[in-house]
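Appendix C reproduces, verbatim, an entry submitted by the partner laboratory led by Prof. M.T., so that reviewers can inspect both the input and the predicted structure.
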Amino acid sequence: MEQRRLSGKGHWYHETQSNHCPADVLPLVPEAAYVDDRFLLDLALPNTILDAHARWLIPARALCSLLFPLRVQVSRLRTLSAYDRLSTALTVAQACGVQRLCNHYAALLAPLPGPDSSRESNRRLAEITQYARQLASSPDVIDAKAQQQLDEVGLTLYDQVVINQIIGFVGFQARMVAAFQALSGLPVRWLPGHHIQPHALAEELDLEEWHSILPGVELPNASARQLESLARWHILGALAPVLCHEAQLLDLTGEILTSGIETNEPALCASPAFAAAADLLARSPDRFSAAQLTPLTEAGATQAQAINLLAWSAFSGWLARLKIALRKP
């Protein structure tokens, strides 16, 4: 298919990351913005599969609406615009190389007004984009300096909770779209020529030894909703009071955690087939295919069990990135 010459935001790669000449730019797919299922992007899947994963798919779909509302009212404490949120999501989708997801977030982003052309706005967007790309694909390089740079460009406490949730969530979404496409026999990345470096694995951190660089919600100042969320999600330990600054996000994240997504199939988890599939999905979601799912079913897993194993692995990567991003050095 002949590619169109497009300028501005009408292309697949976000402008802060594009280093291709116009002839190399992938065309925007406007229809990708219009989906009924904002998490799985209207993938045609059997009802038996959707029903088997409904307990975690329902809060995941709700997170799409909560993190990416059609209109965002910014304030002094919450400065992330709809453009900021979607450009961050697109950056993560690009880092993962899942084309269906890139098409979706690019199509949602394209009609939105961008930030003004001031040096401060350009620096702010550049820092957010770099941080999102690094946390998504190279979490091992995130340190106190990265946190400081977000502070320097004006991201508030609430902004930083939201931006880290967006990065973790979209990485989870990318991997699950890749897994469900593999289940359907569909390729994840169709167009050649864009090499994506394998992602570094997110370090697993013990929450009992973990301390946040951001202050948590203080009980005397907490709202009734925040107190309820804190009591409900103590399973997350020291992470809960920090995430609770945005209690709705914490609730939906916790609902995924306790949805039965955590696998109770130790024999399957210990199999080399699962280790190989989970490792590839974590490092290179753009390369995940049916070839990685087949050994899981041959090892005795049903399709639903195989997806659940991969979903837990992807969700663990989300939580690990939150712990890395928010930890105190």
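Residues 1-13, 15-25 have pLDDT under 50 and may be disordered. Additional entries are available on request from the coordinating office.
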